Every structure is written in structure tokens, then in C-alpha cells.
């Protein structure tokens, strides 16, 4: 069961200023990981911008997010040693952002992170310059992509989409990118959106 996101151990609201934290969010099937991987390759030479590798208590599968796998025990130890800038629990997993992120943002850099809606409120309080980019797709496209993965039956997919429609309220001021069609167009839009958040 998901729990509310936990705050960073750093003191006070907006503990980190100067740079910008950009959270990229979107429902399963929207193509968020694909677009972020393309943007990462496109922007690899930018010294003022970096993509966050989240620490997650699940094994790496090589197919989705390039995260740092971690056991629950190691996660708890890292948490006790103040090794996370921010952390939260969702979908039975634990997520952490390495403490080095805060150091780079405080130095004026831009961080781009695969976001979780469960953490947006807390992250917006922790980072003074907080932005959200939302990747979307039509319900039909989402259903087709989820079916192609072969992980869920049609009833499960329908239930997931219904939950998504209820829970995924748009973050105020979020930039929205529709990835229902041409992926090159959506990739360019994501790169442009990231660069616009200076």
C-alpha cells in the first residue's frame, strides 16, 4: 500500500535553491521512459543539466528506467546515513534521490527526474525552482501499449486506465506533451521543454 511521501532531512521548506528540479510524470503506457532516454542522449553534452538515477528497491530489468537497484535493507541503511536528498514509498517500493542531487542544484544546475505523483507535493516544497512536465497519450493508445507489453489482461488494463483517469490530476502549471503519435515530435518537444526551464 502506498504511503505519503517523506520529507528530506534537510531543514525547512525550499531547502534547495538556485538550480531547477524538473519532474517528468505520466501514466503507464505514455512512453515516458522512451522519451526520457532520447532526451538524455540528446542533452548528454550539457554540463549544466543532468538526469537523475533514482534508487529503487526493485531489480534492474534493462527495459524501463535506468535506476539504481537496492535491497530494502540497504535502502534503510542509506536512509539512516542521510544518503538521500528526498525519498518516498509508492506501489510497494521505496524510492530515493541521491544526496548529490541537492549539491548540484544548489550549484545552479538543472536536474531532470522520472517523477512520481506521490512525491510531487513534497518535492515542490523541497526545491524552490520546481517544474513538472507531463507525458500523456490518448486512452486508446495507452490501452494498446499496455496490451502489447503482455503483463496484464484486458480487465486489468481497463481498471488501470480508470484509476489513472481519477488519480492523475494535472499538476498546476505543468507543461503537457502528447505522445500519442510521432515519437520524434514528442522527443523534440520534451527536449525543448527541459531547456525552457532554466
Concise structural overview:
One of its GO terms (biological process) is 5-phosphoribose 1-diphosphate biosynthetic process. The protein has 198 residues and is of the alpha/beta class.
Describe the protein in words.
The protein is α/β, with parallel strands linked by helices. The chain has one domain (about 20-195): Rossmann fold (3-Layer(aba) Sandwich). The chain has 7 helices and 9 strands. The strands form 2 sheets. The protein has a 5-stranded parallel beta sheet, with helices on both faces. A 4-stranded mixed beta sheet has the order 4-3-6-5. It is globular and about 45 Å long. Residues about 1-10 have low confidence and may be disordered.
Keywords:
Rossmann fold, globular, alpha/beta, disordered N terminus, 198 residues, 5-stranded parallel beta sheet, 4-stranded mixed beta sheet
Layout of SSEs?
Layout: E1 20-25, H1 32-42, E2 49-51, E3 55-56, E4 68-69, H2 72-80, E5 84-90, E6 93-98, H3 100-106, E7 110-114, H4 120-126, E8 130-136, H5 139-149, H6 154-167, E9 175-178, H7 183-196
Parallel strand pairs: 1-7, 1-8, 2-7, 3-4, 8-9
Antiparallel strand pairs: 3-6, 5-6
Amino acid at each position: 500500500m502506498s504511503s505519503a511521501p517523506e520529507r528530506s532531512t534537510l531543514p525547512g521548506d525550499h531547502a534547495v535553491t538556485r538550480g531547477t528540479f524538473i519532474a517528468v510524470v505520466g501514466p503507464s503506457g505514455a512512453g515516458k521512459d522512451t522519451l526520457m532516454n532520447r532526451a538524455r542522449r540528446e542533452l548528454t553534452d550539457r554540463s549544466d543539466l543532468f538526469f537523475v538515477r533514482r534508487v529503487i528497491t526493485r531489480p534492474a530489468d534493462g527495459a524501463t528506467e535506468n535506476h539504481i537497484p537496492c535491497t530494502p535493507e540497504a535502502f534503510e541503511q542509506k536512509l539512516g546515513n542521510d544518503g538521500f536528498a528526498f525519498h518516498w514509498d509508492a506501489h510497494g517500493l521505496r524510492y530515493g534521490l541521491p544526496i548529490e542531487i541537492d549539491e548540484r542544484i544548489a550549484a545552479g544546475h538543472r536536474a531532470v527526474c522520472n517523477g512520481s505523483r506521490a512525491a510531487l507535493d513534497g518535492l515542490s516544497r523541497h526545491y524552490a525552482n520546481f517544474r513538472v512536465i507531463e507525458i500523456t497519450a490518448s486512452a486508446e493508445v495507452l490501452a494498446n501499449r499496455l496490451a502489447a507489453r503482455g503483463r496484464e489482461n484486458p480487465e486489468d488494463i481497463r481498471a488501470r486506465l480508470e484509476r489513472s483517469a481519477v488519480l492523475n490530476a494535472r499538476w498546476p502549471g505543468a507543461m503537457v506533451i502528447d505522445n500519442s503519435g510521432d515519437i520524434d515530435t514528442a522527443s523534440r518537444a520534451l527536449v525543448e521543454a527541459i531547456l525552457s526551464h532554466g
